Structure formats: C-alpha cells, structure tokens
Automatic annotation (TrEMBL):
A single MF term (Gene Ontology): cysteine-type deubiquitinase activity
Native organism: Perkinsus marinus (strain ATCC 50983 / TXsc)
Any Pfam family: UCH
All residue ranges annotated as the USP domain in the record: 19-342
InterPro entries xref list: Papain-like_cys_pep_sf (IPR038765), Peptidase_C19 (IPR050164), Peptidase_C19_UCH (IPR001394), USP (IPR028889), USP_CS (IPR018200)
PANTHER family, per database record: UBIQUITIN CARBOXYL-TERMINAL HYDROLASE (PTHR24006)
GO cellular component terms attached to this protein's record: cytosol; nucleus
Full protein name: Ubl carboxyl-terminal hydrolase, putative
Gene3D superfamilies: Cysteine proteinases
Sorted UniProt keywords: Hydrolase
GO BP annotations listed: protein deubiquitination
Transmembrane segments: none
Coiled-coil residue windows: none
Length: 378
C-alpha cells in the first residue's frame, strides 16, 4: 500500500498543525473516529491522563483493554506533540492491541460505543467518569396507559442519538436534521394491545409513550440510520441530509442548543464497502479540517451571496443554499455528526504526562535520524 507517494514503513514529517493517520488496509473507519475523539479536547485530556492500570492478578480481557488504553495514549500523544505526518507505528500498535482486523470494513458508530465502554471500565474508583461527563446523557421514557391513565417512567443513559432516514435508492431530495430529531421524540402509540402490559390494569392495554432528555451531554453524537434491509439485502440510504452548522435547537426536548464540530462521512453507494473521512472543527481557531487517512487539508464554510460555500466539506459540493439562519450544510454521505453545547468552555490541552512525553520524544528523535544521516552524506 502507498500513501502520500511514500512506501509503507516510511513515516513522513508533519508539515501542518495536525497529523493524519495511516490506513492499514480497511481502517479508514477507525481513523475517522480517532480523529473525532482527538478533537474532543476534554475527552483527549482525560484519556491522556488516565492512570495506567496495574495488571498484576487481572484477567486477560482486562489486560488487553489496559494495553489498548496505553496504545491509545501513545497515539494521542504523538498526534498532539509528535512530528510524524501519519503516526503509522502508533496506530499500528493501537490496532494490534485492540485486535482490530485491518482487512475488514466495520461501523465507526459501533466501534465508538465499544471503545467508550471499555474506557469506562478502566477508570479507577474515585476518578470521575470522563466518558459519561463528555458524551453521556439521560433520557426519560414515560408510558401512559389509555385504559386507566397510570404512568410508568424509565430513565436510560445514552451516548448517541440515532435518527432514521427516509429511504432513497439514489441521491436526491433532502430532509432536515431538525425534522428527524423531532420524529425521534414524537409520541409513540401502542395500538396493539400485545405491546404494553399495564401493571395497574393487570393486562395488556393500548398506551402512549413519550420521551424527553433529562440530562443533555456537552458533546452529542447524532448517528444516521444510513443502512436498511430491503428485499433481504442491506442497502445504503442515499437521502440528502441538511443539518445546521450552528444553532441546532433541542430545547423543545428539554436539551440545549448545539453547534456542529464534526462530521464523519461514508463515501459509497453501497452498504458493504466504501471509505470513511472526518471533517472536524478546531475549537481554538474555528477552522475546519478534513481528515482522509494520512491526507489532511483545511476546508472552509463561508457565506457567499446569501448561500453557504461548503468548499470540499463535508459533501464536496461547491455551494449550499441557506434556508434560514443558522448556516447549514447538506450531505448524502454524512453518517455521524458531532455537536457541542453552545457556550461550553473547551480548554486547551495541558502538557503530556512525563512518561508519555518521553515516549513521544523518542519517536520524534527516531524520525529525525534519517534526516540527520542525509545531511551528513551531503
């Protein structure tokens, strides 16, 4: 495999502010998710400073998770302070520690939930759950029996909001993210008496279920249902999605107002193959960057004559019409969107822990050696 015109095994020196990540075969979905998590600074800081677990007497499964954590810390450390343009050795160590098959195309949403869950298991007692503090929210389900009027409530934790997309076999048409979210929170009627058992009535009854957010996360993942089974075949839903870059108002559902800071896209017309990229906003500068494995470039969202010029991000169409303020983007490839609460203070990341800084410095020196030898030959 070749990338940036260089043979695999040679790590080019970074020239811009951010590192790409080498694709090891079919790991573009891993790379896109890792970039999004890295750009989520509270999550990055907490991950980098999570104590390395004592593996003595622990189960093999726990040891694997701890080794994966250390590999993730080294990768994030190199992405933050390293000089490699593609972090090949670090991402290879992470993929191997996690036992990720490099030739298999998987789902970044499923990987995100797995990654966050095992990180939570590694948080020592007495240390705040930074995963829940960053991405976790609470939703209340309230079901009302239509026979007796009794109400039952259930509270659940969520780390992402999944929204359905109307099926479209080809590109065309457009749906608004706000409408899809409203559909998620619309009342659900159980008209079939076999669906809801009322304890007060002692029998199955018709009922209405409503839901709303009890606690909104600072960072909100919204994942589209872009895959559906039709005629027994898993197909890609190519419906165009219009979503706000600023001002996603969820106050009607007892949540907050959010601004978009990331989009993970699946580039393909089929469900079983394709390529993932990430377009992410730098909190410090407000600049958007597109990450396509080892290729990194700045992209722009700029209003032009009442429209929004999308540059090459995220759907690579030159101009997108603005419906109403706030500014919007449209994409038939957007799969996961990352939003942050308006007004949420995002601090800069502190220096790396001493052990990690030493490891990154060692990697940097190893990369500088070939450059030194070339100068000596001259």
């Amino acid at each position: 495999m070749k990338e940036l015109g260089l043979d695999k095994g040679f790590e080019p020196i970074r020239t811009g502010p951010f590192a790409g990540i080498r694709n090891l075969g079919a790991t573009c979905y891993v790379n896109s998710l890792l970039q999004a998590l890295f750009f989520t600074k509270p999550f990055r800081t907490a991950t980098l400073n999570l104590p390395t677990a004592d593996l003595n007497g622990r189960s093999s499964a726990f040891n694997q998770q701890a080794a994966s954590l250390r590999a993730l810390q080294v990768l994030f450390g190199e992405m933050q302070c390293g000089i490699s343009a593609t972090c090949e050795s670090s991402v290879t160590a992470f993929v191997e520690a996690c036992k990720i098959h490099t030739s298999t195309h998987e789902d970044p949403s499923e990987l995100a939930m797995l990654l966050l869950s095992w990180l939570q298991r590694l948080i020592p007692k007495g240390v705040p759950d930074f995963v829940e503090e960053t991405f976790g929210g609470l939703v209340i389900y309230e079901t009302t029996c239509r026979s007796c009027g009794s109400i039952s409530r259930q509270t659940e934790v969520f780390a992402e909001m999944r929204v359905p997309l109307p099926y479209a076999p080809t590109t065309g048409g457009e749906v608004l993210l706000e409408d899809l979210v409203a559909d998620v929170f619309a009342p659900e009627v159980f008209s079939d008496e076999s669906h809801y058992y009322c304890c007060a009535c002692g029998k199955y009854c018709e009922a209405v279920r409503r839901q709303w957010i009890k606690s909104a996360p600072p960072f909100l993942w919204i994942t589209m249902h872009r895959y559906a089974f039709t005629d027994g075949v898993r197909r890609k839903i190519l419906t165009e999605l219009s979503f706000p870059l600023t001002g996603l108002d969820l106050t009607s559902f007892n949540a907050r107002v959010y601004d978009c800071v990331g989009a993970l896209e699946h580039h393909s017309t089929v469900a079983h193959a394709g390529h993932y990229t990430a377009t992410l906003k730098d909190h410090s500068t407000g600049i958007w960057w597109r990450f396509d494995d080892g290729h990194v470039r700045e992209v722009d969202w700029a209003p032009v004559d009442g429209e929004v010029q999308a540059g090459e991000s995220p759907s690579e169409r030159a101009l997108k019409r603005r419906r109403t303020a706030p500014e919007r983007a449209s994409s038939h490839t957007a799969y996961m969107l990352l939003y942050v609460q308006q007004g949420y203070k995002v601090d800069d990341c502190p220096d790396l822990p001493s052990w990690l800084a030493a490891e990154v410095n060692r990697k940097n020196e190893a990369l500088r050696l070939p450059e030194t030898f070339d100068h000596q030959r001259l």
